[in-house]
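User: Show me a protein chain along with its predicted structure.
Assistant: Here is one chain, sequence first, then structure tokens.
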Amino acid sequence: MNIVCLDLEGVLVPEIWIAFSEASGIPELRRTTRDEPDYHKLMNFRLNILKEHGLGLKEIQAVISGIDPMPGAREFLDALRAETQVLILSDTFTQFAKPLMEKLGWPTLFCNELEVAPDGLVTGFRMRCEQSKLSSVKALQSIGFETIAAGDSFNDLAMIQASKAGFLFRSTEAIRQAHPELPAFESYEDLLQAIRKVL
């Protein structure tokens, strides 16, 4: 039995932190997992910047409410879900994801939690588990699933490499060059066809 594991940001929806960087005028917040392989280091960097500027969850959620899925993402997801089970594995947070999941037709999402003070300041974050994407893929495999994975960033590589089939989608030139063994696609139609071939 197959299950497709997809990254969220950069694959189905725009990068939340880049959108917030543009809305807030803070260029440092453009840094994502495409740039920084160490997720804990990246998140602590982000939280320090939010604190410096007095920005909290309310301001981020206001920006997220205006983000739409990438053109064609909902149709791609619907087509894929008609053929096989799909799970979105993301390092985003439940407090960010809800409006995006609604726009994508409520797919199943495994992600993390922010720690938020009563005044709305983001004080920390709780990862669901260590190496959450790889751990999830291995757990699915342990209960009889064969995983097929796609993502765009450093933090997707482990789940892609551990899967029966794995693909890069709209990734960076640096990641594509570092992993020439991974098929890389730019369009949803091409990714859908590649997944269909291994289902």
